[in-house]
Design a protein that fits this description.
Elements lengths: L1 H14 L3 H4 L6 H10 L9 H12 L1 H11 L7 H7 L11 H12 L3 H4 E4 L5 E2 L3 E8 L4 E7 L3 H22 L3 H4 L1 H15 L2 H14 L6 E2 L12 E5 L4 E2 L3 H6 L4 H19 L1 E3 L7 E3 L5 E3 L5 E3 L2 H15 L3 H11 L8 H12 L12 H14 L9 H17 L5 H17 L1 H18 L3 H10 L1 H40 L1
Parallel strand pairs: 5-10
Antiparallel strand pairs: 1-3, 2-3, 3-4, 4-6, 7-9, 8-11, 9-10
Helix pairs in contact: 4-5, 4-6, 5-6, 9-11, 14-19, 14-20, 15-16, 15-20, 16-17, 17-18, 20-21
Length: about 500
Amino acid sequence: MRLLRLAKIWFVAARYGLDEFFLGHERVKLVRWAMRLLFFWRRFSQPRAVRLRLALEALGPIFVKFGQMLSTRRDLIPLDIADELAALQDRVPPFPSEQALAVLRRTYGREVDDVFAEFERTPVASASVAQVHRARLKTGEAVAVKVLRPGIHGVIRNDLALLRVAAGLLEALWSDGKRLKPKEVVAEFAKHLDDELDPIREAANCSQLRRNFEHSPLLAVPEVYWDYCTPEVMVMQWMDGVPISQIDELRRRNIDIPKLARAGVEIFFTQVFRDGFFHADMHPGNILVQDDGKYVALDFGIMGTLNDTDKNFLAQNFLAFFRRDYRRVAQAHWDAGWVPKETRVDEFEAAIRAVCEPVFDRPLKEISFGKVLMRLFQTSRRFGMEVQPQLVMLQKTLLNIEGLGRQLDPDLDLWATAKPFLERWMSEQIGWRGWLRTFKNEFPYWGTVVPQLPRLAHQALRGEHMERLEQGFMLMLAEQRRRNRWLTIIAALLAASLIWNAIH
C-alpha cells in the first residue's frame, strides 16, 4: 500500500510538472534532461502555480496543509504561487453531498431532515479533511455542521508512514539528522493530525478556547452543541463575518486595519503565554472579522500547548530579543541545555547578534521572519543546538501570524506591539501578583493536605522506612547487649582479682 502511495506521489508530481520547481539548478541539468525525455508527451497549458495547487489537492490533506502554510509566506515564494495556493485555505474541492448525507444518516441513525430543521446540501466551505454545511437546529439556532471526508483516516495513515520512513532515512544518512530530530518532529505532526481527525477532540478544543476568551473584546469563539457531536461530525454555532483576507471589504466596512493587526498579535501572545494553549492553524481561511472589528476563530483541529517551563523560557527569550540582550538569550539556551555544555556563551551570543541586530527598528514589510529563522537554524547547526519538537507548532504559528500581519498592515511594528504585553506578563509571573496568584491556586490543595500531615507522617513512619529504622535500632540494641555482656564479664573478673589480692 505504501509503495502504491509513493508511486502515486511520483506520478502526480510528474503529471503536473513539479520537477521544474526542483530541477532548475545547473548542477542537476542532466536529471532535468532525463525527465524531459522520460515524459516527452507532457504539454502544460496551465501556469506553474495552478499546476502546483492541483497537484497538492490531488495528493491529499498533508500536502494541502503544506500549501496552506506556503500561501502565507509571500516573502519566501513568488507572488503568483502564493496567490494560487491561497485557494487551498477554504476552497478545496468538496466531496459529493450524498456522501456527507450518508455519514450523517449513519451517525444519527435517522434522516438528516429529522435531525435538523434546515440543512443546506451544498457545502459552504471545504477543507483538506472535512467540509462544512450550514444548518438550523429544531430549536432555532443557526449552526455549522462539519463532516469528515470519507476514508480520510487511511490516506493520512499512509502519508504519515511515508513521512516516518523519510525521517528515518534523513536521520540515518544526514550528518545533522539526529540533531534535527526528524522522527520526533513527524511524531509531533502526527499527533496534531490525529487530533484534527477527531471531531470530539476538536469540539473540546473549541470549548476550551471559548472559555479562555469568554469575555474578551478581541476574539469570539463559537459555542459547541455537544448533543450533535460524534466521532465523524462536529456541530457548532454559526459565526458571521468577513474573511480576514478580504482587506478591501474590511475597509469598506470601516474596520481599523492597523488596529486589527495589533489585536491579532495580542491574541496570539495571550494564547501562548497566558494560557499555554493556542490555535496552531491560523491561516486566513480560519479567521473571520465581525463588523465591530472582533476576530472570529474557526477550525480547532490543531492546537498547540506549552508547559510553564516552556512559557517562561520563551518569554525570557522574547524579552531579551526585544531589549537586544543577546547575552541573556545565549545564556538561557545554555542553561536550558539546548546547546552543548562545551559551547562558549560569548561566541553563541555574537552569532545571535549577527542574525537579529539587522532586523530591529524596521517595519514588518522590511523583515522576513522566515529568512531570520533560516539564519537562526544555520547558527543552531553551527553550535550543535538540538531541535525542540514541542515548539515546532509554535514556530509554524508564528510564521502564520507574520504572514497575516504582513497582509493586514505591512508597517506593523511587531516588536513594539508585543514588548509591552510580554513585560506585563513577566511582571505578573515573577512579581508579587504572580506570587499571590500561585498562593491562591495552591491554597485549596494545602488546605486539604495540612490536616492530613500527622496521619501521613504516621503512615510514613510505619512504612518501609520505619521498618528499616526498627531493624537498625534492634541491631544497635543487640550490639549494645553484646558489649554489655562482655563488660559484665570483665567487671566480674576484675572484682574477683581484687578480692583474691585482698585475701592474700
